[in-house]
Design a protein that fits this description.
Radius of gyration: 19 Å
CATH topology: hypothetical protein PF0899 fold
CATH architecture: 2-Layer Sandwich
Order of helices and strands: HEHEEEEEH
CATH class: Alpha Beta
Largest sheet: 3 strands, mixed
Structural class: alpha+beta
Number of helices: 3
Distance between the termini: 52 Å
Length: about 130
């Protein structure tokens, strides 16, 4: 189950960014998961909910956005959504809907990113003790 290792990496990334930005609270996190990553968004969300316990991420809203596969066909120059023969996970069956070709460049759908992190920071005035 590679969802666990990905969830661990995401939690670590978010916590590192929050620490570097002196966050007092993490309000919301948005994660992009491409259809070709073979990550199950529901399993990923469950694991994230477990891994954030007793961290600054606990209680934050975690959004997972699924990114559809997009292609650039080198045969007919079609750009857009491919024909995936009813599947959403296997690169081998991605085909151009215009010409049926497989001479393609995948331009979206392979990413797995922390897209945004919304944090609460301590007021600079309060942090320095100024009035």
């Amino acid at each position: 189950m590679h969802e666990l290792s990905m969830a661990n990496a995401m939690v670590k990334t978010v916590l590192d960014v929050a620490e570097k930005n002196n966050a007092t609270e993490i309000l919301e996190v948005t994660i992009e998961v491409g259809q070709l990553t073979m990550l199950n968004p529901e399993q990923l969300k469950f694991l994230l909910d477990v891994l954030v316990e007793n961290t600054l991420l606990e209680g934050s809203k975690i959004n997972i956005e699924e990114v559809p596969v997009e292609i650039d066909c080198k045969t007919c120059n079609y750009e857009g959504l491919p024909n995936m023969d009813g599947s959403d996970h296997y690169l081998a069956i991605v085909r151009c809907p215009e010409c049926g070709g497989r001479n393609l460049e995948i331009t979206a759908g392979r990413e797995c990113n922390v897209k945004t992190i919304k944090i609460e920071q301590e007021d600079d005035a309060d942090a320095s003790g100024s009035e």
